[in-house]
Amino acid sequence: MAPHEGIRPMRAIFIRDGNIFTTGFTRMSQRELGLWDPTNFEEPIALLELDTSNGVLLPYYDADANMVYLCGKGDSSIRYFEVTEEPPYVHYLNTFSSKEPQRGMGFMPKRGVDVTKCEIARLYKLLDKKCEPITMTVPRKSDLFQDDLYPDTAGPDPAMEPEEWLDGRNEDPILISMREGYMPAKSRELKVARKNVLDRPTTRRSMSTLDTNSLPPQLLERLLEEIQNLKATVLSQEKRICDLENKLSQYTNGTA
C-alpha cells in the first residue's frame, strides 16, 4: 500500500521511535505528510495536508530534538514540526521564510552547530549563485550550557564495521557530549574609571594672579623668600645634572 495516493515523488525517513515519516502528494496533487507504524500500514498514525505547491518536500530529521524540517524544491520557506507520542503526533511549530526560492538544501550534523548561541540546527540553502546558511536558534538569556537543548548526540566514530552489519549485527550509535564544544562567554572585566586628579577643576590661582595687596606683609615676605630658595635649588640641580652628563660623555668616549 502506498503511503500517499498521488503518483508524484515521495520521501520517507525513519525516526527514533521506529516509526516512518513520509512526504508525498494526494490524488488531487496536494502536498501532505504522514507518520506510519512499520508494522501496520493499513492506517496512518497521522496524515496532514499542507498546500498545492508542485515542489517535492525533502524531510530532514533531527533525532536529538525529534524535529523534522521540510524543505520543498522551488519553495522560499522551511516548515518545521515536532513528533511526539501524544495526538496529533506531528505538531506544527513554525515556518522560516525568505525571498529567494531554494534549488536544494543541506543539513549540518548536530555536532557542527554553535552551542554558545543556542543553535539547534543549521541548514544550507542552495541558490543560483551562492549557498546561504540558515540557523535555527532557541532564545535563552543564560550564558550557561543548555543541557535540555543538547543531549548526547551521535559522534563521528562508527559503532561497528560494515561486515558486522552485513552479518546481521545491530548497534546503537556511539554518542558524544556536546558540552565539549561549549566555550563560555568571557567574564566581563570590572573596570573602574578614575579621573586624573590633574583634570579636576581647582580653585588655586598662580602667584601672578593673586592680589598681593590683600596679603599680610609678613606672609608676602615669606612667600618671596621661598620662591628665591626654590630658584636657587633648581639652578644647583641643573648644574649638577650638567656635570654628570659631562662625566658620562667622557666615559662613553673613553677620554676619562
Automatic annotation (TrEMBL):
Query: This protein is called what?
Result: Coronin-6
Specify the species: Characodon lateralis
Family annotation (Pfam families): WD40_4
State the encoding gene: CORO6_2
